[in-house]
Amino acid sequence: AQTVTQSQPEMSVQEAETVTLSCTYDTSENNYYLFWYKQPPSRQMILVIRQEAYKQQNATENRFSVNFQKAAKSFSLKISDSQLGDTAMYFCAFTFSGNTPLVFGKGTRLSVIA
Amino acid sequence: DAGVIQSPRHEVTEMGQEVTLRCKPISGHDYLFWYRQTMMRGLELLIYFNNNVPIDDSGMPEDRFSAKMPNASFSTLKIQPSEPRDSAVYFCASRPTNYNEQFFGPGTRLTVL
Each residue of B61-83: pLDDT tens digit? Predict the structure, then answer.
């Protein structure tokens, strides 16, 4: 079975600083996709960034970037210039290619402090 | 497009009552997923459909839970009878074939007293 592990239940960061959220996963598959979702207090699930396993280049979306280490099965999220609006739960998720459901980690609660 | 629509947004019911949660996927999306989110277990897949056909219902906790998708634009998740341990946020998500991003609805917060 595929698993996703987020080892940091809670984190905090000062506004304008940089924070990195960790995620590891376990799979024997070679083709898959990784995601980071943000869930603010409104509980809406918002896609932050995605990474295709076959791409060596790390994905970047504005202040959000990932460090994808395929051999280590690691997929961390870096948030630069943290803003108060980044306060949320962050979920790492995994899916195979081929139209399968997402498998989620337990989440990391991030608090951005003014 | 309005996105994935779920109703109701909040539901409070008493133990033993029947609860029906509703979902309208994004038009053209032929995959529909039901997830449940609790503090203890996080986000779990309950069931998913492809072209209105259930593909995997192994996450449905027990016979009290049932899900249907009578057409491409509507799905229901029913709990009968409901129990306090069913209290959770239930998400519906959809996506088109061969596109791995899922689009989530706003969720239904269910409280069973």
Answer: 889 999 999 999 999 999 999 99
